[in-house]
Amino acid sequence: MPATYTAKDIAVLEGLEPVRKRPGMYIGGTGKDGLHHLVWEVVDNAVDEAINGYASTIQVGLRSDGRTIVVSDNGRGIPVDLHPRLKIPALQVILTTLHAGGKFDNDSYITSGGLHGVGSSVVNALSERLVATVRRDGKEWQQRYRRGKARTELKGMGPARGSGTTIEFTPDVEIFGEYEFDPELIVERLEVSTFLNKGLRILFKDEGTGKKVELRHDGGVIDYLEAIRTKVEATNTTERAFTLERTEAPRIDVALNWTDAPRERFHSFVNGIPTREGGTHEQGLKDAIVKAVRGYMDAADVSLPRGLKLTAEDIREGVFAICSLFHPDPQFQGQTKDKLNNPEARALVEGVVRSELEHWLLDNRTAADAILHRVVMAAKARQASRAATEQVRRKSAVNRRLNLPGKLADCSNSDPRVCELFIVEGDSAGGSAKQGRDRKTQAILPLRGKVLNAEQASLKKVLGNNELSDIVKALGCGIGADLKAERLRYGKVILLMDADSDGHHIATLLLTFFFRYLRPLIDAGHVYLAQPPLFRIESGKQTWWALDEGERDAIVRKLPPRAKPQISRFKGLGEMMPKTLYKTTLDPESRRLLRVTIPEGKQMETENVIGDLMGKDPAMRFKAITEWMSLVDEVDI
After folding, report:
1. DSSP 10-64
2. What does each C-alpha distance from 9 to 1, 160, 410 come to in angstroms?
3. Which residue out of 17, 128, 369, 502 is catalytically annotated?
4. Are residues 364 and 246 in the same domain?
5. Helix runs in 276-407, H state only
6. Is the peptide bond before 250 cis (omega within 30 degrees of 0)?
7. In the listed set 188, 215, 242, which residue is the last one of a domain according to the structure?
8. Which residue, of 215, 234, 267, is where some domain finishes?
């Protein structure tokens, strides 16, 4: 720690330096998602030209080196004349200055996905090479950049036909390490843009393989809805889907239908940008569906079976829906634009869609009756499931300790909705957890050593393993084809291992077991990973807990300059005092848990990862570990 703290210690990052210093703030990270986010930023700018009627075709190419992307459109072309205040070409201003662009002024773009004005400059800052070529006013102009700074002056390249912009960039290995673009992921995202913009034509070429793809969908969002339904092999409840195309500003495109799928699927977009976490516009669509169905039932004087009450979840069960909003001033949550925050968007979408959907139901009575039958069946199934759960709960309250493993320290409550099972590494940690837990709602099951690798074992061998067999007995819901999730005795199943490489290995073995033989518990959101601290930092009368070295260093940096913190590292959970273990890891008010999920559309990728990492082929395991070496801090070999 420095003895003095003065003005000279204050760092000021200029230009695009903040982007290179903290890329995660702008693209969400430097892994696969962050790398491809650079492509989305450039493509979205080209799509903005199409949305506003200036472009009809976009070309995207992956060069033969596998590391360079080129995006070209036939729009107006980025301005190249001198900026009146900065006295440098407008192209250079846009590519080297944060919050610079033509999208802050509604005269240039009516709607746009790139309203923050940082997309192009961020791509430039994080690229070891970028070449911008502009065609406009009968001439072609070009300028080259390196890591956010212009390497050449803007040069006239001679006469040119047509207009448009071409951006070619190579992401920086200093930021992203050794990387490869995923052509299939790029094509998937490009196709979404053509679904959302009728008539837009996008051409993709992978120069390494020679593969060419032409994308165009004149049906718009209804084609997208059908593609999603076909992909998951769901069956429509009605022959016709509901569609809405509101052409006046703000433009809204909606397509939805009920299916036989067990859950709802909503895909929402703002100005062509996927809002993966939804937001106010998506919530407005959900409100509209529920209110329109209820409104139809009132208008058509529909009566429900006696004792049956419909919830919003019953009405939306099985709904597949697309909502594409074009807003002149969207307020996104962060630069990655995963969520819309505009409060007025909820009422706007709900008001427009509710009225149209209610009229559609009244005009299509056969479809409406089929939908209501689907909704009533969902409500009955929910009530039957709840009744069965209550019956199992009542029975288990009587004989809940029969056939349970002897080392399980069970909780006294019999309600699965509030009960938690901690599967703990080692008898020592199990002892601390048993003493520190809330005995009413928290059960502890200690394990000895590293459990069997379920990826390499048959079900018979798994059931013959004492540790895994004890887990199955404690859960009480069966295993494999005989698993009945409604019999699960604990609402949360939490894997609690040491915060070191051995603990991570045991957690991986257990996750493999759950994935192969108890998968419905993961799908239903019952499985969690505990996050015990690795470090304790004490300064004065204050104490902080850090999960890893990065958190430890961040906490230390925030302390006063003259502070002399005491830092201790836990060797394992077993050396924690029971009160400490409860406060940091067991207490619902202060603990940190990670829910184990399988991302939508990543099922096969997850299968492959587990097969490679945990399977019998050591060559595949070595390859996987080698590929991931740069992502981990410590590897035991």
Report:
1. -----TTHHHHH-THHHHS-SSHHHHHHHHHHHHHHHHHHHHTTS-SEEEEEE-T
2. 12, 51, 55
3. 502
4. yes
5. 280-299, 312-316, 343-363, 365-399
6. yes
7. 215
8. 215
Q: CATH no. for residue 308?
A: 3.30.230.10
pLDDT for 109 equals 42
Model's pTM, two decimal places?
Answer: 0.56
Rounded Cα distance, 543 and 552, in Å: 12
The per-residue pLDDT for range 463-513, each reduced to its tens digit, is 888 889 899 999 999 888 788 888 899 999 999 988 777 888 889 999 999
209 and 235 within one domain: no
Pick from 171-175, 445-449, 517-521: least confident: 445-449
Work out how many domains the chain is built from and give that number. Answer: 2
CB 464 within 8 A of CB 520: no
- Mean pLDDT for 230-237 is 90
Catalytic residue among 172, 253, 264, 498: 498
Spot the catalytic one: 425, 467, 470, 612.
425
Residues spanned by the domain of 334? 221-382
Residue 328 in any domain: the answer is: yes
Active-site residue flag, 617: no
From residue 623, give the alpha-carbon distance in Å to each of 178, 398, 530, 610.
15, 51, 28, 13
User: Is there a catalytic annotation at residue 425?
Assistant: yes
Q: Is 253 annotated as catalytic?
A: no
pLDDT in tens, 422-443: 999 877 777 888 898 999 999 9
Q: 117 falls in which pLDDT band (50, 70, 90)?
A: very low
Annotated catalytic, 107? no
DSSP classification of residue 518? -
Q: Name the token pair of 154.
A: 């803007």
CATH number, domain containing residue 30: 3.30.565.10
Indicate which residue of 128, 277, 338, 500 is catalytic. 500
